[in-house]
Amino acid sequence: MTAGHSGGSEESEQRLQESNFTGDLVSDLKLLQKCCERHSDTRIRELHIGHTDVRAAIVFIEGLSNNSEIQNNIIRPLMSNFAERYEGDASYAEGTVSGSFLINNVLSVSEWAAQSRVQEVMTAVLAGSTALLIAGSKEALILGTTKGKARSLEEPVSEAVVRGARIGFTELLSDNIAILRQQGKCDELCIERFVVGKRVKKDLVIAYMEEIANPQLVEEVKRRIAGIDMDMVHESGYVEQLIEDSYLSPFPQLQSTERPDRVMAALVEGRVGILLDGTPFALIAPVTFSMLLQSPEDYAERWISGTLFRLLRLLAALNSLLVPALYISFISFHPGLIPTKLAMSILGTREGVPFSSLVEALIMEVSIEILREAGLRLPKPIGPAMGIVGGLVIGEAAVQAGIVSPILVIVVAVTAISSFAIPQYNAGITLRMLRFIAMFCSAVLGLYGVVLFFLLLCSHMVKLKSFGVPYASPASSIRISDWKDFFIRAPIPFMKSRPKLLHTKNTKRKG
Fold first, then answer.
1. 110 in a domain, yes or no?
2. Per-residue pLDDT tens for 307-339?
3. DSSP state, residue 90
4. How far apart are CA 149 and CA 6, in angstroms?
């Protein structure tokens, strides 16, 4: 009995989803009410159109729809007397009023669509639109009355702005598109919309420059987005993981950012931007590892200082990745490579330490990572203070207790500070994870293990691709022109060409 009842219920629900409006207002409202049985916040308002006998009803969700817009732009115009206008409508002679007549002459709404399927109308209502049903019409009007709730425009939280526009994306997709267009007047900026999520649907757009971006790149991005098959795409990080080339790689293969100027700069280079409703983080594809070490301030400042900062970040990335591993290899396997006085000083500070260099390094590194994670989860006024004080207290206590040596505290501090110098947070996480692998390699094979680890890492980066673009480029290519924006930041007058690795339609920067 239970199975039969369940099967009948599923069949009934399937028929309801596939049903169309009949034109009989009473029957059509019953169909919608069946769809709304589990949505107690649905509101239905019946009325007569323009002092006539033609009945109509509006359906909306309380809280999602803009009540003042419904009152002023839909209900009030519909109930006003516009007899001198509707008498000329051909459908009025048949006892109804056409939706096109109301849209063109009565209603004050900018977004609308006609839909005959009950399920499609209910989906639009649940997204914040208002449905207008008219007696005698087999189509319902979907009117755009969504009430957007977004925070005010603020400076990006995850990316510090030293020089540039102090404005970041918000959680509202329409606002983000407007912010992107406000970067400058451009007729070539294309915005294409998709819907992702099978059960909970969200809007997603891709942005690119029509006269610059490689058409094959744009089509590949579209193909991967169209292939997303999930109940709900919660955040742009889900999109990133679903469309990246290799989910086994530790490296991020799309760049995430809150900064509109970074996205626009990437679009002008020939890349593609991806924006998802409900998140302030946009994605840029394709990406190379060198992009993750660059900052928009590199181009706002003069080329000499921009080059210096870029080289410092590269050094910081190497420090974050290899310094603890080099410490372990020198102490455990190659003390002869250390200058004699320094070696004697280090050995003196390690006297009485009961652990091997690997174990004491792991103790400090894991402690620092736990402190860093705890600082992120604590309230903002407490988090930074706890991270600094906790690090100092634990480091000093560990040295006093003879658990670790003072030189290791310096090594761990340099490593932690270096990881903060990387502009992209997810790139910093990657280097922090790989640091532990490098430490184990050095503990087994010494300096040879560090070199072997670095070679394997470079080999993986050379093989890795992001939407067909080599991840290690331009280091892995022979295009010398692309090196003007790699280790150094050449003067802007010398950077006349777009990156050749992107195969853009227009290779020259105008002007």
1. yes
2. 898 999 999 999 999 999 999 999 888 888 888
3. G
4. 39
